[in-house]
Amino acid sequence: MAKNVQFMMGNHAVAEGALYAGCRFYGGYPITPSTEIAERMAERLPQVGGRFIQMEDEIAAMASVIGASLAGAKALTATSGPGFSLKQENLGFASLCEIPVVIVDVMRGGPSTGMPTGPSQSDIMQAKWGTHGDHPIIAVTPASVQEQFNETVRAFNLAEKYRCPVVVLTDAIIGQMMESLVIPEPGELEVIDRIKDPGVPPEEYLPYDMEKDINPMPPFGAGYRWHVTGLHHDETGFPTNDPVLHTKNTVRIIEKINKNYDDIVKVEEFYTDDADILVFAIGVNARSAKAAVLEAREKGIKAGLLRPLTIWPFPDKHLDKIISANNIKGIVVPEMNLGQMTLEVERVAKGRCEVEGLYSLMLDPILPSEILEKIRRFA
Amino acid sequence: MAYDYSRYLRNEKLPHIWCPGCTYGIVLKSFIRAIDGLGWDKNDIVVASGIGCCSRLPGYVDFNTLHTTHGRSIAFATGVKIANPDLKVIALGGDGDMTAIGGNHFIHACRRNIDITVLVFNNNIYGMTGAQYSPTTPKGAWATTAPYGMPENNFDVVNLAIGAGATFVARTTAYHTTHCEKMIKEALQHKGLSVVEIINACPTGFGRKNKFKTPTSMLLWMKDKAVQKAKADRMSSEELADKFVIGVLHKEEKPEFIESYDSTVGLKKGE
Ligand SMILES: Cc1ncc(C[n+]2csc(CCOP(=O)(O)OP(=O)(O)O)c2C)c(N)n1
Ligand code: SF4
Fold this sequence. Notes:
Chain B: It is an enzyme of class 1 (oxidoreductase). Chain B: Residues 51-198 form the Thiamine pyrophosphate enzyme TPP-binding domain. The complex is a heterodimer of chains A (379) and B (271). In chain A, 39% of the residues lie in helices and 22% in strands. Chain A contains 13 helices and 16 strands. Chain A has helices spanning 10-20, 35-44, 58-70, 81-97, 124-129, 145-162, 172-176, 243-258, 261-264, 283-298, 316-326, 341-349, 368-378; strands spanning 4-9, 23-28, 51-54, 74-79, 101-109, 115-119, 138-140, 165-171, 178-183, 227-229, 267-270, 277-280, 303-308, 310-312, 330-335, 354-359. In chain A, the strands form three sheets. In chain A, strands 2, 3, 4, 5, 6, 7, 8 and 14 form an eight-stranded mixed sheet that branches. In chain A, strands 11-13-12-15-16 form a five-stranded mixed sheet, with helices on both faces. In chain A, strands 1-9 form a two-stranded antiparallel ribbon. In chain A, helix 1 crosses helix 2, helix 1 runs parallel beside helix 6 (145-162) and helix 10 (283-298) crosses helix 13. The longest helix of chain A is centred in the middle third of the chain and has 18 residues, at 145-162. Helix content of chain B is 34%, strand content 17%. An eight-stranded mixed sheet of chain B has the order 2-1-3-4-6-5-8-7, with helices on both faces. With 271 residues, chain B is an alpha/beta fold. Chain B is globular and about 60 Å long. In chain B, helix 6 links the parallel strand 5 and strand 6 (194-199). The longest helix of chain B is centred in the first third of the chain and has 15 residues, at 24-38. Classes of the chains: A alpha/beta (379), B alpha/beta (271). Chain A binds chain B through residues 24-25, 27, 46-49, 51, 53, 55-57, 59-61, 63-73, 75, 89-90, 93, 219-231, 238-239, and chain B through 10, 13, 42-44, 46, 48, 51, 58-59, 62-69, 72, 75-84, 86-87, 104-105, 108, 258, 261-262, 265-271. Strand 10 (227-229) of chain A pairs parallel with strand 2 of chain B, so a sheet runs across the interface. Thiamine diphosphate (TPP) binds next to strand 3 and helix 3 of chain B.
């Protein structure tokens, strides 16, 4: 059968990926450069039996997707920096209450209203630490239109599997550009659904069994009549002031992600086998980094690229392995901010090699030539 | 035989956290009787709240319950309802929840006319945080953040709801227990966005410092100041000057949001 190939915008690919994953609710608020996701969902959802709503603000949008998820729907919201700030309140709620939802942040230049049409990667730390308190988060980082689709499907799968909010952290360039996209056939990509049937009668159901990493989540209306609260809760879901339980549950919800590193963290390794100089880059910069690595190789420099498709949890293990196995001399970290990932790379490197950030707020992807220049310094 | 509330309560979660003399417990009973009167299946009912003393109510009732963030109950409830319109969705909160931090959600839900019942527990103060003024604190009244008297104008919850487009708006009080039950019941039966403002007493935060020596005096104040709609219609504005009107104060038929949405977009059902 002929493949379904379409020439599509990155933001539209997110919407199509969400629908493929089974998303049937979108609650959002328009903001450049993410708006095309909302527009596409507004048009497409009714065609597949889903519903769209434009809420009054991003706080409400985030609340609405959590509500929809509690009623059993896979739910999506999308935004950019200023809206991502507003979503943080209820993103924390989803983390603590373990509600699967997917949030897209099409990064633009900040802080504040910043550079509405200018691409950026300056929400990397906000995605991890934007909401208050210790909490888990998963964030995926697509670098092409095809990955906008595939990673959105994966984001839904991870949300459903781990009962956790998942962020698709992309940027204005990947979101706005057009490339060809192969729409997978139904069944071609794995689609995971949360476990809705607890397999026990309602009086025995524990929504937050502390001995388990992930508990089943029956939708409201299914007969389980459980309680959901943003207060710290015990295994039954009701509030508790017990500091021991509070500690235990906080550690549990974070560890349920960390423990499953191998399933959650995905990277692309490009010429890393024999590399002694590494580039660590996500999103649009990873495309420049690839070109830089190829040019370096032509010049006889053994450069390689480690490209995370999951930035949170941070790909510690992958990075650590390459640094120690390859005896890496230096790592170049190009990022469109003033240094966020670089700090994490330094943390993992533990002084074993030099780490050099290459920062830009110029609203253009960092050029291969700029990355190559940094690589050559280590050669 | 005494009415059996236990069928609707999570009895093991009692006693509740409310202060002696707080009227929230009385309203909880009216709320339960209203639902019981409709004979709805407990599994179909979702109660969402924000943060505050009254927002602890969902923890005590045996439904699908959701204790959200401060002011956001309606926004969460909107997602629940749209994802599964078969559920009966109730969003509740205090005057702080509904008219301050959640004011935006409140007016937009009214405008959309989504089929949710909104219960506003108005005690004219922020109870939980210890008596700071709210948008419904009467001018001149004392609050910890209005130590010289409330300097701001206040909202009338009923007028706010009507102005924003709610299609059923009622007011009642904690004192008028059967009236309260009736108003909640009618609101639940209404198709569209219904609002019931329930005048409550916070003796701990509001009463003590505003010349209400006892919780009872606050209930007697409600009894004295509330005028039933039918009677109020026959009274002059001078006679009504220091009173407030209770009853169904606005009701109209308008297409409900999800029904309008589904027909507007030609929703393909059953996929
Ligand atoms: C975002 C946020 N801001 C502030 C608070 C603190 N806070 C908790 S309850 C409350 C006000 C409660 O008043 P109201 O909504 O009228 O309910 P009541 O306690 O009187 O029933 C406030 C300000 C909070 N929990 N969250
Ligand atoms: S502080 Fe006021 S509103 Fe809160 S429980 Fe006590 S009396 Fe009721």
